Amino acid sequence: MINGNPVTEASYGQTVTLIAHTPEEGMEFVRWDTSGVVLANYYNATTTFTMLPAPVYFAAYYGKESVKSVSLTVDAPVIGQKINEAKINVEGATLKAVEWFENVVLVNETDIFKPGKTYTIKVLLYPPDEHMFADEVSATVNGSSASIDANTQYAYVDYEVGTLAENAFPV
Fold first, then answer.
1. Which site among 15, 58, 70, 87 is 20 to 30 Å from 44 CA-CA?
2. What letters, b where the CB count within 10 A reaches 16 and e where it falls short, cover 8-36?
3. 8 A C-beta contact, residue 154 and residue 125
4. The pairing of beta strand 133-141 with beta strand 67-74
């Protein structure tokens, strides 16, 4: 666009605005691919450039919509249950690995939950095939906000699952 009007030709030195088409359902704008021109921002669906004295080429690149949130449901620890028997369900991502910590010490998956201990999980997640995690992806565990450290390719979710009572049974 030049001055708000669609164009297919521009004169040398003119400022041209590129506006990507609205993506199809489930897709989002990713970046501009160009040849012969430098854009103000390659990752905005709307950007500008100054026309050069030669032809320029550009194309909008679209990808699968980014994952903006993930949700985990974790069974509450049960005293005497093996660590690896606690079920974890994930929505919005693929579960790759789980680490359990007992009072901040990594435990073996065949250990059992013990009374008087605090348990935390660290879960490694990947986005579904052909998706990426959004820059500001959020996480919930059992409906509560959880800490998430993510980039586009993977994310770690940390969450304190709970502290088990010292006396498992009434005395």
1. 70
2. eebeeeeebebebeebeeeebbbbbebee
3. yes
4. parallel
